[in-house]
Specification:
alpha/beta; Urease, subunit C, domain 1; single chain; 4-stranded mixed sheet
Length: 199
């Protein structure tokens, strides 16, 4: 069954998804009339092609993403530097779990693609399982290796036949997204599946 995604602040950019690909992009009213059998997903805010995070290795191989059970001693934000190296040196299972949690954080910030040369199997597996696209790094990096509010590297536009990969942010426009950051993400779709939905 096709799914029609629409965002309140982007009525002219509704997306019809069939399987893992975009079947059509256009005004909500037009797509809804042409596909009355489609399941409707209505979101607050704006729909975008999703974000590219250019810091894949820094975030998924060099940072440690604490388990919630470790929050009392490590906090809830990624750990960098010498402490991260110590935690990741615990072995492949620690690296794999950290990479999976890192990917979940990326998805929660509207990330649908990562850049940078990933070398570790654990990070590569986490990215592949989540369906994140791999891309080259932009020529100019947008700032520190942070998840929010930067970097906001928007991917090319949505179109029929392209992979169903996009995000919705609860902001009224792109200027507000730049101002308020990627933590405003309400849903991330990868391969036609909801891989993140804010509760």
């Amino acid at each position: 069954m096709p799914t029609l995604h629409t965002a309140d602040a982007s009525p002219g950019t509704a997306v019809l998804v069939e399987g893992a690909h975009i079947a059509a992009v256009g005004p909500y009213e037009q797509l809804a009339a042409a596909h009355p059998d489609a399941r409707l997903r209505r979101w607050p805010g704006i729909m975008t092609p999703g974000l590219l995070n250019p810091y894949g290795p820094e975030l998924l191989e060099q940072a440690y993403h604490p388990d919630p059970r470790e929050a009392d001693r490590l906090g809830s934000e990624p750990v960098f530097g010498e402490r991260a190296r110590e935690l990741l040196a615990a072995g492949p299972s620690a690296r794999a779990a950290s990479a999976r949690r890192g990917v979940q954080r990326l998805l929660a910030h509207g990330t649908v693609a990562v850049a940078g040369e990933l070398r570790g199997r654990e990070a590569l597996d986490a990215v592949r399982r989540a369906g994140l696209a791999r891309a080259g790094r932009p020529p100019a990096l947008p700032g520190p290796a942070a998840l929010s509010p930067v970097p906001l590297v928007m991917l090319p536009g949505l179109g029929p036949g392209k992979p169903a990969r996009f995000a919705v942010f609860d902001v009224p426009d792109r200027d507000a997204l730049v101002r308020d950051g990627a933590s405003t993400c309400v849903v991330t779709v990868v391969g036609g599946r909801l891989v993140y939905r804010r509760r």
